[in-house]
Write a structure and sequence with these properties.
By secondary structure, this protein is mainly alpha-helical. The chain has 17 helices and two strands. The protein has a domain at 9-82 and 91-286. Strands 1-2 form a two-stranded antiparallel ribbon. It starts with 8 loop residues before the first helix and ends in a 24-residue tail after the last helix.
Length: 407
């Protein structure tokens, strides 16, 4: 018997579309307020001769505004979510009886974990914007946020998904630490990928906003078919809230930007991606997890390209240089606006491919296709000379590398 959709896309979105509008409105209103506060308190990004070429100090705290927009939308959903009273009652019963399994599967508990961990990662980035913490301290903050997400029950099917690829089904005491390790790796990887992408005005916010819309398409498709009742609405609400928060901030950040998101914003966006990846494998299905990585392909490729070039040139991977794809395109004569527009197009293409392939192909088939595409893309990078590291400067040469970041 053929399986039929249980809802239409409109029926999935109609009850909670307002979450995105609420986040959009909050970010639109709060961003100029944060800009005013940043200038009054001198929380600004000052230009220098190396990585920050903007002509005047530019306000930070854009990440705080996006976080407020995200939290506003999710709190609204928390109050009005379907069967809210039932979920709250089940939460109290699970807490009182110590039933951890029921607790981890409760939508309210998951949402509270997402809210708390998102605020935590934003605060880590904000501290870095203000006080400049070390990379190790930053990673420690990411570990803390990942731990909150883990306790919140996000990604509880992640380990079983991994083992299912090789036909293994280990006991729970094996799955729990594997799940923790996987979630931690994904959080650190995505937070740093979006942080490194934040190099031109409007780039990171616009690309991640498109990624959020790609995730929304995936979440809506799952809701249409009713694959995972209980998780569908939460996935859709999170995508709507993040997309709204980004779109509310972006008008103030497009070239020439009047406010920067800073690490508070870039790490928040990466953490959102990690959260959605955990949510797409809640039930241990590899298909949607792989699709989520495909949607996030552009930041992943940009980060990988920069890391490979730095390793080939013998530089530390955290050293700022002109290794990123967007830097190389600017160096080849494209304007900042042209590069940002091209990245928007590439992000939309990646999202479209990820969603389409997930719908049409099974997980293992999609993995094979993505590997072929990956080989082709790296072949293009090699052919265009983008992998080759920069030539070393002769001894005594005083000119530093061209500035990497516009923020």
């Amino acid at each position: 018997m053929a399986v039929l959709p249980t809802k239409s896309p409109l029926e999935v979105l109609q009850p909670i579309w307002w979450v995105g509008v609420l986040s959009l409105a909050a970010a639109l209103v709060v961003t100029p307020i944060m800009r005013f506060i940043a200038y009054r308190t001198r929380i600004v990004d000052k230009p220098d001769d190396l990585l920050k070429p903007h002509g005047r100090p530019v306000a930070y705290l854009g990440g705080v505004a996006m976080c407020i927009g995200l939290v506003a939308g999710l709190l609204g959903f928390l109050v009005a979510m379907p069967d809210a009273r039932t979920h709250w009652r089940s939460l109290r019963e699970a807490l009182c009886s110590g039933r951890l399994t029921d607790l981890m599967k409760n939508p309210v508990w998951k949402l509270l974990g997402m809210l708390l961990s998102s605020v935590a990662i934003m605060l880590v980035g904000l501290i870095d914007d203000i006080r400049k913490i070390t990379p190790r301290q930053k990673v420690c903050g990411q570990v803390l946020a990942a731990a909150i997400l883990y306790v919140g029950g996000v990604g509880d099917g992640m380990a079983s998904m991994l083992f299912s690829l090789v036909g293994l089904y280990p006991p729970i005491y094996v799955l729990l630490p594997v799940r923790a390790a996987m979630l931690l790796v994904i959080v650190i990887a995505t937070c740093n990928a979006t942080n490194l992408l934040d190099g031109l005005d409007g780039l990171c916010g616009g690309v991640t906003g498109i990624i959020a819309l790609g995730f929304l398409a995936l979440a809506t498709w799952l809701g249409v078919w009713g694959h995972f009742p209980g998780s569908d609405e939460l996935r859709v609400a999170l995508c709507l809230a993040m997309a709204g928060a980004v779109l509310g901030f972006l008008p103030y950040n497009i070239p020439p930007a009047s406010i920067f998101m800073g690490d508070a914003g870039s790490m928040l966006l990466g953490f959102f991606v990690a959260t959605m990846m955990g949510m797409f494998c809640q039930e241990g299905t590899v298909r949607w997890f792989v699709a989520a990585w495909a949607v996030f392909a552009l930041p992943t490729l940009d980060t990988a390209l920069a890391v490979v070039r730095r390793l080939l040139s013998g530089k530390p991977i955290f050293t700022g240089d002109r290794s990123h794809l967007y830097d190389q395109l600017v160096d080849r004569g494209m304007t900042v606006k042209q590069v940002v527009g091209l990245f928007y197009l590439l992000a939309a293409l990646a999202a479209g491919i990820g969603v389409t392939v997930a719908i049409l192909l099974r997980g293992r088939e999609a993995i094979v296709l993505y590997l072929v595409l990956l080989v082709v893309i790296w072949g293009v990078f090699y052919k265009k000379g983008m992998i080759k590291p920069e030539p070393r400067k002769p001894a005594g040469h005083d000119d530093g590398p061209p500035p990497e970041r516009a923020e």
